[in-house]
């Protein structure tokens, strides 16, 4: 563990916003939730578990005897898709809208819970016909369209864990995940619409499949109608297979700990981690937090998580949380500035969105585009705003509150991770007096703290490492196929305590401020990237001898990727062409999100005597600061050479 310069003293924040009286009076979660959970934590979670319909009730809330491998709601059996769909229809809510789908090009679909039941049942029957069985892993590489939800829920219905791969990932990133997870069945689309153009998805899957002979079928949704290459032995159109299926399907109840999905996320080594979530605890966590933090009133609210289903935020707060609660959500396919920069606000106005959840990077873009754009639309339907994915700077928080929330909507800054499954630290909007930029308090039932290097709680006013001291229902259960890495990554820094990898501070009032990663994980526009993953991609290029990657602070994206590269002798004097070539190389190795903002060709890299690259110094260069202490470098002249190069470029 290293000391991280991001853990700095924050000046005290004096601005505070109490919940509006009418919001507080009608809020789902009141202040007594904290007391109830503190008095009997497991009893509290057992009570939250009643939000879910169990086929067989559980007999034990938590089995923590094989730490750090938790089992929640032991003995219980349930079906996640039944909980998200069938039971609402059985309760007479079949006509309620589950999704207002808005395609980027303006096409729309309204999907009720009855529609969802039909579509998910047909998809589940199709997967069964195609040989997908309980326990098989299914990869999903899709645009933001309703079929993505149908596919996920069809998998959940069969107990076949899905692994959704973000549609911006490259062919080799797909192949890595498919192989790591032992996937034999892939669902994709011909493409989706992004920035006004059809993007190719099937073509990327085709390329990935060259490296994945185990995959027997690729099921393809027709979204854009673009021409696609076809492998008759492997490829099937969704409409050919799914449309002719029976509209009924009987869901089977699975064990509470049956795997629901695997989501790959970046860690501190080059290999992405397969974060595994199970059924009962995950559904309880997402449904509870969607109720408590978003104050969902399913009869009247229109809820919108403006994120991609390919990330955990989409899994928990576009799919499982809102559906478990029988809510009505917006599902938007495209980008915020297509065809114009008011697109989001047009959608809020059109569907009378009442709750909006998005990332600070989007808010910062809107700030840059100017307050006049949202001012053109009627945003008075909004009553609650949420933020997720990275620290939100106080200016962006204030802007969001004022120009989107009309100074009347509470803003909840929610901290959590792919590993956590659902929100862990956040204000309760009807209870907590919020401060711009602070995630405030651990939710009821969550025991979080900030530790120093020795594992002691820091005093109020100090910074340290964010930890979770007790297990929680939607926690990851393991890393797919790598129990050792699971133990080492999260449970080895402090005994029996979950180490989040984030720096945090507790202020004088006892409120939490999350400051960002303390390891080599970058956060670019709310997307997690690992320095090691990008470095491995760079050194795999024949012209590269060595590479170091750092995250430099960036006004818009939070952090930006800066690469320092030593070329092989044969490739020297390659000029700008080499830089362009390397950028393209990273893009095709991982995906566009991993493209470095800049690549600097350097003669050497700063290393300690033991050979460890001192990224801290490179970060100083990238952030145009005076370079820090170089005394531990094996060769202190290296930094002079690098800086000279920067000055000349
Ligand atoms: C960061 C996204 C500050 C943090 C749900 C964490 C945040 C990583 C916040 C997880 C927040 C997320 N304030 N930082 N409200 N929310 N983070 O796995 O560094 O994509 O470790 O999950 O995002 O990113 P992930």
Shape: globular
Q: Nearest-angstrom radius of gyration?
A: 24 Å
Strand content: 15-25%
User: Taking strands numbered 1, 2, ... along the chain, how are they ordered across the largest sheet?
Assistant: 7-6-8-11-12
Work out the helix count. 20
Give the helix level as a range of percent. 25-40%
Bound molecules: 5'-O-[(S)-ethoxy(hydroxy)phosphoryl]adenosine
Terminal Cα span: 34 Å
State the low-pLDDT regions, or none. Answer: 1-9
The largest β sheet comes out as:
5 strands, parallel
Structural class: alpha/beta
Description:
The longest helix has 17 residues, at 113-129. The strands form ten sheets. A five-stranded parallel β-sheet has the order 7-6-8-11-12, with helices on both faces. A four-stranded parallel β-sheet has the order 16-18-19-20. Residues 1-9 have low confidence and may be disordered. It has 20 helices and 30 strands. By secondary structure, the protein is of the alpha/beta class. The radius of gyration is 24 Å and the shape is globular. A hairpin with a 5-residue loop joins strand 4 (97-102) and strand 5. The chain binds 5'-O-[(S)-ethoxy(hydroxy)phosphoryl]adenosine (WTA). Residues 265, 311-313, 388-391, 413-418, 439, 500-502, 514, 516-517, 523, 528 line the site of 5'-O-[(S)-ethoxy(hydroxy)phosphoryl]adenosine (WTA). 5'-O-[(S)-ethoxy(hydroxy)phosphoryl]adenosine binds next to helix 11, strand 20, strand 24 and strand 25.
């Amino acid at each position: 563990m290293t000391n991280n310069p991001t853990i700095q003293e924050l000046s005290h924040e004096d601005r505070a916003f109490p919940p509006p009286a009418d919001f507080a009076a009608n809020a789902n979660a009141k202040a007594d939730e904290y007391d109830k959970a503190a008095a009997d934590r497991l009893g509290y979670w057992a009570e939250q578990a009643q939000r879910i319909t169990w086929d067989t009730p559980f007999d034990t809330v938590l089995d923590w005897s094989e730490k750090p491998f938790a089992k929640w709601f032991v003995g219980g059996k349930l079906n996640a898709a039944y909980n998200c769909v069938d039971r609402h229809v059985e309760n007479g809510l079949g006509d309620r809208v589950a999704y207002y789908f808005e395609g980027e090009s303006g096409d729309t679909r309204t999907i009720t819970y009855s529609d969802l039941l039909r579509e998910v049942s047909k998809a589940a029957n199709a997967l069964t016909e195609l040989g997908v069985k309980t326990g098989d892993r299914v990869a999903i590489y899709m645009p933001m369209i309703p079929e993505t939800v149908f596919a996920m829920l069809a998998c959940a219905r069969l107990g076949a864990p899905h692994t959704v791969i973000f549609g911006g990932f490259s062919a080799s990133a797909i192949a890595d995940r498919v192989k790591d997870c032992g996937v034999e069945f892939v669902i994709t689309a011909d493409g989706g619409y992004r920035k006004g153009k059809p993007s190719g998805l099937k073509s990327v899957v085709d390329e990935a499949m060259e490296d994945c002979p185990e995959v027997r079928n690729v099921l393809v949704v027709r979204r854009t109608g673009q021409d696609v290459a076809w492998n008759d032995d492997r490829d099937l159109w969704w409409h050919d297979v799914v449309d002719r299926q029976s509209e009924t399907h009987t869901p089977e109840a699975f064990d509470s700990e049956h795997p629901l999905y695997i989501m790959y996320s970046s860690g501190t080594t080059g290999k992405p981690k397969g974060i595994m979530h199970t059924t009962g605890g995950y559904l309880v966590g997402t449904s509870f937090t969607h109720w408590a933090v978003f104050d969902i009133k399913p009869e009247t609210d229109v809820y919108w998580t403006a994120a991609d289903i390919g990330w955990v935020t989409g899994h928990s707060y576009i799919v499982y949380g809102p559906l478990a609660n029988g809510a009505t959500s917006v599902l938007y396919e495209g980008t915020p500035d297509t065809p114009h920069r008011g697109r989001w606000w047009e959608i809020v106005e059109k569907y009378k969105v009442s709750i909006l959840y998005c990332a600070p990077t989007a808010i910062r873009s809107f700030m840059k585009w100017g307050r006049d754009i949202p001012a053109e639309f009627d945003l008075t339907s909004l009553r609650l705003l949420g933020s997720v994915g990275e620290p939100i700077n106080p200016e962006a928080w204030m802007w969001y509150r004022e120009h989107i929330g009309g100074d009347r909507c509470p803003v909840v800054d929610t901290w959590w991770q792919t590993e956590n499954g659902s929100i862990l630290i956040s204000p309760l909007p009807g209870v907590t007096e919020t401060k711009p930029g602070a995630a405030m308090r651990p939710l009821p039932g969550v025991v979080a703290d900030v530790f120093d290097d020795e594992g002691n709680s820091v005093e109020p006013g100090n910074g340290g490492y964010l930890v979770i001291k007790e297990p929680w229902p939607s926690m990851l259960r393991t890393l797919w196929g790598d129990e050792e890495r699971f133990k080492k990554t999260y449970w080895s820094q402090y005994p029996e305590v979950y180490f989040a990898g984030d720096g945090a501070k507790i202020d004088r009032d006892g409120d939490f401020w999350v400051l960002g990663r303390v390891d080599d994980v970058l956060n670019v526009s709310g997307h997690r990237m690992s320095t090691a993953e990008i470095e491995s991609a760079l050194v795999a290029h024949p012209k590269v001898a060595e590479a170091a990657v750092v995250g430099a602070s960036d006004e818009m994206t939070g952090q930006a990727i800066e690469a320092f590269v030593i070329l092989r002798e044969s490739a020297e004097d390659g000029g700008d062409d080499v830089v362009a070539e390397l950028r393209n190389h990273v893009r095709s190795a991982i995906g566009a999100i991993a493209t470095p903002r800049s690549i600097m060709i350097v003669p050497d890299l700063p290393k300690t005597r033991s050979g460890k690259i001192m990224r801290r110094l490179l970060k100083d260069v990238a952030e145009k600061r005076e370079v820090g202490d170089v005394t531990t470098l094996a060769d202190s002249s290296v930094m002079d050479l690098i800086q000279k190069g920067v000055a000349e470029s």
